[in-house]
Write a structure and sequence with these properties.
four-stranded mixed sheet; 341 residues; Peroxisomal Thiolase, Chain A, domain 1; single chain; globular; alpha/beta
Length: 341
């Protein structure tokens, strides 16, 4: 029998601390109007001192398990998409699994920056459909506030911290919630467009101290904008054609929440109305690997995602990487809003 990976649970978590555009304007040479006009972002949330990516991942994972009605010992795989792990070594996923009551589960991290959640879904789905595992918990979690230059108004305006998660179970390819396919890709020639230059083996093996700015996240905004629109649009269209949605397309696109202008441009490329493009970044900023599952949870809570809709997910991130997947939206049980920790 053909098997598919089916989304059966969904949850999110955000830090309690809210940073508004007005808060940033009091610290930096910026303004609410400048930030909104360029990004569409009004607020973002950041972790408190002493908190880490795993804290958000555990909270989101717990809510996804509750949404699915799944016990911890039913899950034997945890895949964590993150570019801000608790430590450079080891991976953060095993600690998340242990804290969720799954100490024997297979667990690993996926580092594909803002495409991480789609890559993690693809990895977990492959293991489920192969019969390697029974159920999987896929989490996207990032705390980019820990790698941003405090004096950089551009990156601090864009990024926020958060986590989102889904539970996957094996099921029938024709049922709602089944992931219908993937389109994944990368282009290492653009690896310098989104990067933290210092801290890895290349910089350390060279010896000496790296410039202070190399320890912070850096992004070439204009080039990234163009690449993001092109890559997400092409990936989404390739998948639409492959799964037989050509001619009718998706009812709703939940894209990586990078920038409002990028979201609108992707929608235009796919021939969709603004109402068909999910927007969540206005309240949380770019939460990197968490952005797609957090946007799903927000849309589910608001009722803009309804059972039976054709939903396409697409992301673009550092590497460069991109990826898309699609599903018929299922009926899910979900708590009223993402947890605040």
């Amino acid at each position: 029998m053909n098997r598919a990976a089916v989304i059966c649970g969904l949850g999110g978590a955000l830090p309690e601390t809210l940073v508004s555009n007005a808060d940033l304007a009091r610290e930096l040479d910026t303004s609410d109007e400048w930030i909104r006009s360029r990004t569409g972002i009004e607020n973002r949330r950041v972790i408190a001192p002493g908190q880490a990516t795993s804290d958000l991942a555990v909270a989101a994972g717990s809510r996804a398990l509750a949404s699915a009605g799944a016990a911890a010992d039913d899950v034997d795989l945890v895949v964590l998409a993150t570019s801000t792990p608790d430590h450079p070594c080891p991976a953060t996923a095993p600690a998340v699994a242990q804290r969720l009551g799954m100490p024997g589960a297979a667990a690993f991290d996926v580092a594909a920056v803002c495409t991480g959640f789609v890559y993690a879904l693809a990895a977990a789905a492959a293991m489920l459909t192969a019969g390697t595992v029974r159920q999987a918990l896929v989490i996207g979690a990032d705390t980019f506030s820990t790698i941003l230059d405090p004096a950089d108004r551009t990156t601090r305006a864009v990024f926020g911290d958060g986590a989102g998660a889904v539970v996957l179970r094996p099921g029938d390819p024709a049922e709602p919630g089944a992931l219908l396919g993937f389109d994944l890709g990368s282009d290492g020639a653009g690896s310098d467009l989104i990067t933290v230059r210092a801290g890895g083996s290349r910089q350390r093996s060279a010896g000496g101290d790296a410039p202070a700015e190399d320890h912070w996240f850096a992004m070439q905004g204009r080039a990234v904008f163009a690449e993001a629109v092109l890559s997400m649009s092409k990936s989404a269209q390739h998948l639409i054609d492959r799964i037989g949605w050509a001619g009718r397309g998706p009812d709703r696109v939940v894209a990586h929440q990078a920038n409002l202008r990028i979201l609108r441009a992707v929608g235009e490329q796919l021939g969709l109305s603004e109402e068909q493009i999910t927007v969540h970044l206005d309240q949380v900023g770019n939460t990197v690997a968490a952005s797609i599952p957090l946007a799903l949870a927000d849309a589910q809570n608001k009722g803009t995602l309804t059972p039976g809709q054709r939903v396409l997910l697409t992301g673009f991130g550092g590497g460069l990487t991109w990826g898309s997947t699609a599903l018929i939206w299922p009926s899910l049980h979900l708590a009223p809003a993402p947890a605040h920790i």
